Amino acid sequence: MLIYDIEIAHAIPGRDGLREEGITYAAGWSDFAGMGIACIGVYDFRTDRPRIFCRDNLDEFTALLTKQECIVGYNNLRFDNKVLEAAGLSAIPPEKCYDLLVEIWRGVGLGSDFRPETHGGFSLDAMCWANFKAAKTGPGALAPINFQRGKLGSVIDYCLADVYLTKRLLDRVIRSGQLVNPKTGDLISVRKPGGQR
Fold this sequence. Notes:
With 197 residues, this protein is of the alpha/beta class. It has helices at 32-35, 58-66, 76-86, 100-107, 116-119, 124-132, 142-148, 152-176; strands spanning 2-8, 37-44, 49-53, 71-73, 97-99, 178-180, 187-189. The strands form 2 sheets. The chain has a 5-stranded mixed beta sheet, sandwiched between helices. A two-stranded antiparallel ribbon has the order 6-7.
């Protein structure tokens, strides 16, 4: 099993439509081909270590995927997997995917299709704060801007921090099958990888 997270290379315009000078942008949140990949962070359970993949070793990431029975992400079905496919990397078979965000939605009785009025409020940041008073290291929108400004170290650091936070949530799901709902403070029953409750 492995956990992975992608940071994109090209920024997404904000709701106000403003763009920073000198920064390349994708057309929007559905322009997966225009996003590109800055880096991919991984935690490999088999070797018990984090890894990072950039332009020079993306083929190693593809090879690593083929050896996995379960590939875990946070919003990976709606985002990360689509960025991978658009970049021409291996498509991850749906039966190997475990999207922790989707499992949280299911745990509170929601479907897997995002609807802002019902599905909002379960971000990685919100879930980590509710469960261990830990927060993300910054907003994801800065990662492609930092990447384009040559700050690859900060992008890698941000990406691996998200992988670590996802792992903390997943470890709790594997141990107890429950997470705290950030909206209510109640416990959510979350399906474990492999289908167990």
